[in-house]
Amino acid sequence: MKVKNESKKEITEDILIPNISLENKKDILIFHTHTCESYTPSEKFNYEMTGSYRTTDLNFTVARVGRELKNYLNTYDFNVIHDETYHDYPAYSGSYGKSLTTVENLLKSQPNTQIILDLHRDAIGSNSDYAPSVKIGDEVAAQMMFVIGTDGGGLEHLNWQQNLKFAVKLQEKANELYPGL
Predict the structure, then answer these.
(1) What is the pLDDT of residues 22-80, one digit of tens each?
(2) Which of 37, 94, 101, 104 has CB 3.0 to 4.6 Å from 62, enough for a Cys bridge?
(3) Host H or E run for residue 107
């Protein structure tokens, strides 16, 4: 596992021990701060862009990934709420504030939810240690990255250490099932 700390918070070995437990492991909320984030168009999967690698056609965005994840988790009897509200259209700026309002409203109707995922599509950078995909068996899959916000940016975020522990636990399980994911 690789941890890249861009905050002023100290990440100790103790913080990375995934010794957490959830009371409710069945209620999951998936949303997208950047709902219109799309993927490179291809001949088979062509779409009309409404921005730089963005589209309002949710069949070609990260929202489609959220739909597929919801369907997969439902087969294991998870109760998944998937919100596809546009937070970054028509304007990208302010999308985090808009998505926060969406999540706060959803939690009013789903107060027992303990797992909340803001699913994004990451852009490929020029960093040489960045590997966007991995081969698992005969399949090529996109790698996962967990981004954990702290309260270092000025917003109150009391549970960031628990969120980091949860991400470590998820990463450990993913690597157990699918090495390199």
Answers:
(1) 777 799 999 999 999 998 888 988 998 888 889 999 999 999 999 999 999 999 999 99
(2) 37
(3) helix 95-109
Residue 21 amino acid letter: S
Query: In the chain, what's the furthest Cα-to-Cα distance?
Result: 48
One-letter amino acid for residue 17 of the chain: I
For residues 39 and 127, give the distance between their C-alpha atoms in angstroms, rounded to a whole number: 19
Distance CA 85, CA 34 (A): 9
Q: How far is CA 8 from the centre of its chain?
A: 22
Each residue's pLDDT tens digit, 150-181: 887 777 788 899 999 999 999 999 889 988 88
Instruction: Give the residue carrying structure tokens 């916000």.
Output: 149
